[in-house]
Design a protein that fits this description.
Length: 196
């Protein structure tokens, strides 16, 4: 073999070895978790009213531990991890807001608006903070905790904490995801009753 052929074969072998080492991103998860509302409005249901009389459900604020698409796991009073193989389809605050808005629409007598200018023209605003939506490894339970702030059209502000905990949950993505969905729906039911 000539020296040129040897160099070409060596370069080709190097490229072949490197392609096994190069990765253009993490492997996508097999499944993504989401929240689905237990109460929904039926097809064809309609509501009408003035935008100023509507209720706008805002996306709750969160701390950095919930500002990701992972499920936080409390491992002690001062440490945190994320549940292996558990990924939300989008950030928890948006998922919770969607369940909350749909539940209020289905269970209440209010015109609920969201998105765009209508959201900001509504005089009644539901906002707050999603304080917790995760798994506690020390107790084997999930917890959803929401601090609601309701500002009514007359300027009155009411606050209330809502929470639901479900125990006896294994630290597995599907079990934790299903339990968090149940807990989020219970909290949304309670908020819908409070809002009216």
């Amino acid at each position: 073999m000539t020296m040129t052929k040897i160099k070409i074969l060596a370069a080709a072998a190097s490229v072949a070895v490197l392609t096994g080492c190069i990765s253009f991103g993490a492997e996508p998860p097999e499944k993504l978790l989401t929240l689905t509302p237990a109460a929904t409005i039926p097809e064809g249901a309609a509501a009408e009213g003035e935008a100023s009389a509507a209720l706008a459900v805002q996306t709750p604020s969160v701390t950095q531990r919930l500002n990701v698409t992972r499920v936080p796991v409390t491992t002690s009073d001062s440490s945190l991890a994320y549940l292996q193989e558990a990924f939300w389809v989008e950030k928890p605050a948006q998922l919770f807001r969607n369940v909350l808005a749909e539940t209020i629409r289905a269970k209440g007598n209010r015109l609920v608006v969201g998105g765009g200018e209508l959201e900001y023209s509504a005089r009644t605003q539901l906002s707050g903070q999603l304080v917790d939506m995760g798994y506690d490894a020390t107790t084997g339970s999930v917890l959803v905790r929401y601090d609601a702030v309701l500002e009514t059209d007359d300027g009155t502000i009411r606050t209330r904490r809502f929470e639901e905990s479900i125990s006896g949950i294994l630290p597995e993505a599907e079990a934790v995801g299903a339990a968090l969905n149940r807990a989020a729906n219970t909290v949304a039911d309670d908020v819908a009753e409070w809002v009216g």
